[in-house]
Amino acid sequence: METTVSYARLVRPAIDRVYVGARWAARPRMEAFYAERGCELGAENSFFSGVLARPMPAAALVDGLVYGDGDMSRELEQGIFVRDDEGAWHLTDLGRELVLFAQRATGEAAEELWGALLPGMLPGLSIVPRLAELVGRVLAHAQASGGPAFRAMSPPYEPADASPALLLVTRLGSLRHHRADAHRAAWRAAGLTADGIRALPDGPERAAIEADTDRRDEPAYAVLTEAERWELLAGLAALPN
Q: Strand, helix or coil at 91?
């Protein structure tokens, strides 16, 4: 029988597949909306579930962009973000308009992707609202164990009229940062840098870091019963992308 720790590693690919599938399906409409306003997709688009709810602290953004160049000059030049005296990143009115559209477009794309699944299900028993509820409980429980990026991304912004699909993809977008924080903490504890972990080959050292990541990610799922954990995994696996 799988333990909660190994479950944390097992469920991550399912979370990524569902979330990334919806994001890629929404990308053409997001790019068109941005282009009409003379903008390009940037960090605000990737972090939509958090930046709509609160300013993003400088340290959280650094962690969120640790595998890239971290250059935010384009977002500043386009007038999407401004920085306060403490270095936190705030959406401008334009930025909020763009990110609200990105969230809505992602939810719409998810509904389209999953639409083939939903008509054949009994009324009131659609798996999407249930999955959104399970992920919401995980997010709430993970507040005690999440790192800087996760705390910036959770609780996520959820419109009052949000569809179950929008709720699910938004919550998954925030939940992904719990493991991302866990992984960064694990490789830093091993004395590595971002370049170092990218270059690290498979072997005992990487296996130890991945095991440490699992241990740090595990507390998020402790709120679910064993049956609920498998329900979440099976439900995510059933969603087409």
A: strand
**Statement: the pTM of the whole predicted model exceeds 0.90:** yes
d(CA 201, CA 206): 7
Whole-Å CA distances, 220 to 89, 121, 166, 183, 216: 27, 29, 21, 14, 9
Chain position carrying tokens 């595998």: 67
8 Å CB contact between 131 and 175: no
What integer is the mean pLDDT of 77-87? 96
pLDDT in tens, 112-123: 888 865 555 543
First to last CA, the chain: 28
pLDDT confidence tier of residue 125, bands split at 50, 70 and 90: very low
Q: Mean pLDDT, to the nearest integer, of 114-138?
A: 75
- Burial (CB < 10 A; 0-12, 13-18, 19+), residue 203, is exposed
pLDDT tens track for 144-160: 999 999 999 999 999 99
CA distance 208 to 113: 37
Distances from the Cα of 6 to the Cαs of 139, 141, 180, 184, 221, in angstroms?
19, 18, 16, 18, 11
